[in-house]
Specification:
- 24% of the residues lie in helices and 26% in strands.
- The protein has nine helices and 23 strands.
- The chain has a five-stranded antiparallel sheet with strand order 2-1-3-4-5, with helices on one face. A five-stranded mixed sheet has the order 10-20-21-22-23, with helices on one face. It has a five-stranded mixed barrel with strand order 15-16-17-19-18.
Length: 397
Amino acid sequence: MRRFDIDGKVIGEDSAGLQDVLEAAYRERLRPLCLCRSPGVPTYIARIGEQHLIKRMPFTARAHHPSCPSHETLAGIAAEDDPRDGAIRLDPESGTAALRLGFSLSKSGPRTVSETDGGEPGSVAGDQGTLSLIDLLHHLWHEAELTVWTARWTGKRHWPVLRWHLLEAARQMTIRGRPLAERLVIPEPFRASAKAAIEQRRAATLAPIRPQSGRPARLMILIGEIKSFAAARSGHRLIIRHMPGFDFLLEEAIHRRLRKRFAIELDLWEADPESHLIAIATFSLKPSGLAAVEEIALMLVAENWVPCRSLPEKQLVAALARIGTRSVKLLPDRQATQPSPTAVLLRRPRPLALYIVSPPNSVEDKAAFEKQIAAQPDADVWVWDIEKGGIPPLPVR
């Protein structure tokens, strides 16, 4: 059982009065200390409805004791050792993470003007020291713990739950000193009976980016599930679930680049009706009030919303969903040159790193992989060589 120090008072996570204590601490913006180690590891309190939860702060997975649920060992290390040095900086006082983005959040004329050091529009990979759109989506998904799965959650992970966790994660992050959540649009679950109220709240959210004569347009970031792409008189329309009647315009050049760059994700999504396709995009508002996509990236997730980027990964995610052991799907950097686990089974006392191996391109590639496996200090190893056939059995608790 975990214990926490909240303003000098120690309380266990199964204590009868925990919710009352957390509610008071939430109002006073106190940070509980997880007592898995001494003198304690800072956490934060999140609120969902009337319920309060204690969650791990960004970049603290390794700080917790290996027996603590907040310690992710290999998973936490892989997700937090980002090669883009300087892209994410944690403020130990406030507990927030300052993000340095590699894409534009303002637009002047036909070309985007970056508020940070940006890459080409629509780019997948940001510059060194910055986060691209897909990097940001991966980081949010990880910090919202949506890469984590246990069979106990079967049937309990739906869009309202995802949205809440993503927004809670975003509230712990800032861009240029302002909360990231202020620049995010994550559609709330649509109900026909609440249509007018939902549209009113959306209009209020979008008010800061409405065009103003003579001033660069501000952009917002959309995260939503794609329902479909539809042809428009010029270009295409991006239709997002839970946003009926509010489509996003896609120029033909952006749509063509999207189809090429995310061909694998689109193929898997179109072939599997149970999967979901997540879009992250920057968008502006035209004087007409229509939304236009400026940059966009895609991420495929399985039926349980755990990310996957290939058919073997999808098969592994499905296999992990059926066993009782808690697992974490890793989201490796697309620019990484070293082999990395696809997922980790968080079993005790040692986690199990799960590798999917494609036929090596060279003797050097094979040697590099074998060297990394031999040097794995803190985990056992499971390897699926897809050249040798179907998925090997997974260890069951």
